[in-house]
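Filed under: proteins

Residues; backbone shape codes:
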Amino acid sequence: MKAEGDPAAVEGMSRFGITGAKLLGISMPVLRRMGREIGTNRRLADLLWRSGYHEARIVAGLIEDPAKITPAQMDRWTAGFDSWDVCDQCCMNLYRHSPHAYRKAREWSRSDTTYVKRAGYALMATLAVGDKESKDLRFTGFFRDIQRGADDERAIVRKAVNWALRQIGKRSPGLNAAAIRCAETIRRRPEPGPRWVAADALRELRSSPVRRKLGLSVQ
């Protein structure tokens, strides 16, 4: 992995808020190739995670076994998040496939710790995109958590709240209507943070491409 690193890429990562002493500067396509070549390997995933290297932790999330990861391990890894992209990649590549995903999404969304809380909402968003089988009812319970999270003053959390709201609202006509109602409730708050979450979500949820995809009339 160190041989694949690019110092110039590390400088570029800082422009996206990704900083730290253990950055190698490896692109996501290369990391995904590594993950495919390694395959599932729980022991190596643990070693990579413990190394503390940014890219090593992303690969750890690609090669860990979601069927065998425990809630305690999920909590331990999530407590170690120090950037939005390791958080989001773990949610996307690993956590959403775990049988503990829905419970952890709600639990983490109630945390006061920045990246743990982001993980809760990022997991909601990635479940909404990736879980094609679950019924709408499994997602409606997230709206209360979304309304609560919209008040968070931290942009890194608010953006994940917005992400979750938009993705849930694009699953079905029923969830689209429910997400719009949730956003309208949030928009009535006086603070700028919640109003941004709502306004940005409503622009997408009411857009013509989304409505066409869901088979809704376009006005």
Summary: DSSP finds 14 helices and no strands in the chain. The CA atoms of residues 11 and 74 lie 30 Å apart. The radius of gyration is 18 Å. The first helix runs from residue 7 to 14.
